Request: fold
Amino acid sequence: MHRQRGLTDEQVVEMYRYMLLARKLDERLWLLNRAGKIPFTISCQGQEGIQVGAAFALDREKDWICPYYRDLALVLAFGQTVRDNMLAAFAKAEDPNSGGRQMPGHYGDTRYRILSGSSPVTTQVLHAVGIAYAGKLEQKDFVVLTSCGEGSSNQGDWHEACNFAGVHQLPVVFMVENNQYAISVPLEKQVAGENIAARANGYGFPGIQVDGNDPLAVYQAVKEAVDRARSGNGPTLIEAITYRLLPHSSDDDDRSYRSNEEVEMAKKKDGLLVFRNYLLENKLWTEQQDQELLAQIMEEINEATAYAEAAPHPNPTDLYKHVYV
Amino acid sequence: MPMMSYIDAVTTALREEMERDERVFILGEDVGKRGGVFRATAGLYEQFGEARVLDTPLTESAIVGVAIGAAAYGMRPVAEIQFADFIFPATNQIISEAAKLYYRSNGTWKCPLVIRAPYGGGVHGALYHSQSVEKIFAGVPGLQIVMPSTPYDVKGLLKSAIRSDNPILFFEHKRCYRLIKDEVPQEDYTIPIGKADLKREGSDVTVITYGLPVHLTLEAAKDLEKEGISTHVLDLRTLVPLDREAVVEAAVKTGKVLVIHEDNKTGGFGGEVVATIAEEALFDLDAPIQRLCGPDVPAMPYNPILEKEFMLNKDKIANAIRELAEF
Ligand SMILES: Cc1ncc(C[n+]2csc(CCOP(=O)(O)OP(=O)(O)O)c2C)c(N)n1
Ligand SMILES: [Mg+2]
Reply:
């Protein structure tokens, strides 16, 4: 199946590795939060397949991303390390995203063309369009992918960005990670029509719904969007449908607005498990390899945790730096 | 030296900077084919093409947001907001994004962006085409605010703004556009951002102001001279960063200070100027500091009598200076 989509055996194993890495790192961040070591975490769990599928469809040497706070797997696949993210979690000086200034999940990294993001949702969607416009002015052939949640796709900036990119046929992939909830508010109270992909019609470019629990399907949809963008045929909207497996953030309690049964049902369709089974069934992967990979990942996470915890804080006087150039 | 209007100085600075640096481009509503509703970008579309003089959809947040993305990438966008009154849909992009990008990324992402916007009243623009909006942004570190009063300053300061790596709000008083003419050198020159300009030396009263009231004050000062009142006039030119040194020096010069702006009084930038003087030169003062500002009403009405009542003029300013001189 993956070969028909243009992915090699090695690539799909690599995709799985990033998904598992993101999941295990995410789990550790929750543990650290519950242990009182870090004040906050926000989760990618359930959305790794979308993010890794999208990352592999991009050219990770030249394309740009304007991600949102759940895109841990995306930024890992784009080059950030477990250590980079641990440093952000502990808000240490060496954090490459912000030197410990921003909450975790606010990615930004000049090394990998990951534009720095903020907290107000979808502001980055316009920035993605601006980067794409700059690329067009300079006659570059990179593509910009920007992502957000389904609730956020109601924001004016999101719509302004789609329209702008549609008018100017810019090489942007708008990806909405539809995890059914915006904190506590479910999709049906969030999105009229309940179909986000259809919104692309109004902006004159294709909108595609894809199963977000299937990284290969996401890969294919985003790959087609990227090819279209790179060849000068304008933007695409991808709505990747999945489920947010954990509370909104470490400060949320989801028991007040959804049932345990509903969450348990969703866990059976967890993209990480489905993909792992796919690899096992197709003899691309063994239980033994899985155990070895897990051990390797845990070692990396342990090492990064220890490093970040021990890393120095910024100096108090760093507060005053970088207000103006 | 050729005489040039305020708006022609805007166009000239834009043209010269676009000629000098390929990365400079303009985006906004009607800036292309039409050359701007005030004609500030007249001729640029023809000279540089539609890609660099971009007619955007009617969306202020997108104009600024797209410009921020392009700036982060390494371009030097000059965004035009058609009227300062319509900058509010873009406030989130300006305050949450442009102002904070450099800081939040620990100095790794820059935002070399200029946002130009015509502001101010006296043109029958009514509530939503007359506002002064500088106070909304003046308290937001990360932004710089330039508000020139003369064509000479427009050219030099707009060039500096475009060459700066910081996000800059460049507010142009629309009443000045065709009213104010000045000798502007043909050569390339810049004026440093953050430097006030002493417009007139005087010994009785110091006026500290910016924008259109600079001209009204100079006219008033001429009249008052005949009455034997000597006025010292400082044009701030840049609100952020504020030239504190020049403010204090001007205040100390006469010991009697009048701060003037068209923006309404409460929360207006004048409060910051007054506080600076109070902090640094209180004991050099001979009278309580006075402010002459737009009134604290929501906006400027369309009706000419009401508009006139709102606006500052030479007489209002002369009266305020006279009162202070007599104190
Ligand atoms: C402009 C703005 N309003 C409110 C918030 C607070 N907030 C953060 S995330 C969120 C829900 C977002 O839901 P969705 O877009 O579906 O993304 P998800 O978190 O589910 O991935 C809210 C309300 C915010 N960050 N920005
Ligand atoms: Mg959601």
About this structure: Chain B touches chain A at residues 25, 51-52, 54, 56-57, 59, 61-62, 64-75, 77, 89, 92-93, 96-97, 100-110, 112, 141-142, 144, 164-166 (CB under 8 Å).
